[in-house]
Fold this sequence. Notes:
mainly beta, five-stranded antiparallel sheet, 2 helices, 36% strand
Amino acid sequence: xxxxxxxxxxxxxxxxxxxxSCNQNSKCQNKTEYKFPVLKGSYFxxxxxxxxxxxxxxxxxxxxxxxxxxxxxxKEGKEFYFNAxxxxxxTIFVTRNVNEEWTNPEPINFTSDYIDRDFTISPxxxxxxxxxxxPRIAGEEKLESFDLYVSEKIADNIWCEPxxxxxxxxxxxxxxxxxxxxxxxxxxxxxxxEGLGGCEIYTSQFIDNEYINPELLGGxxxxxxxxxxxxxxxxxxxxxxxxxxRDDTMGKQDLYISFKDSKGAWTKVQNMGERVNSTSxxxxxxxxxDGKILFFTSRRRGKADIFWVDAKVIEDLKPEDLN
Length: 323
């Protein structure tokens, strides 16, 4: 009987060790899923294409068999952030140029069991805005929709615990894809049903360190289609957005751009054309903090990939009377 107990305990111990080992291997595989080759230099040593947009870091960041979206370099091109799947949820990954070599991408330090996606970084590089189903108050259930959250950079490699932007902006409907200009004015989309139809783009001014009641952007930007994923220029001079099924679409969702005129009004949006768009979906636009690169997400390879192109494409689309 004693020997049987010893054998049983031994078997349990062996199974436990195997399970722990498997679990550790699983975690390691998750962490090394984006293992890099040796890459050096700002912007991974690459130069953005000047003609048509191309897949960004094909097979390295933009994997052949896995989805990625959203992208942001810091101003010096020494840090790169992107969205990818981690433990079955979208989260934000980061890789850094340390001692002239890029580190293996890892989930950002505030990664949790919630969805964190559709992010942008403030023009000064110190705040990260994103949409999430995190609970508004710790300990509550996760949200059924998305709210806007912000995290501030408190040290190298460390971002503070995200905070909900608050009920002035967030509602029981979905709010997502936030971006801010240099003075903190916020742009985002919501499906709260106040506009012409579908999702609409809103702005909330940042006054005395607080956001005020959001307002719809005018009809030159919003339409009776789904308008979403808007990115505001740091100086507020243009806005890029994704819109679905407009009359001049090249695919289901295209990227459009509108510029501010001398009176502060938005020009009628224009399709960004074949240098950017395709017969597939284009979403999640952003411009690198140095203003040199336009990033966006496209599904032209059958799943979400990050694409990039020289930001001169923006200047080329600017109406002559605004130059």
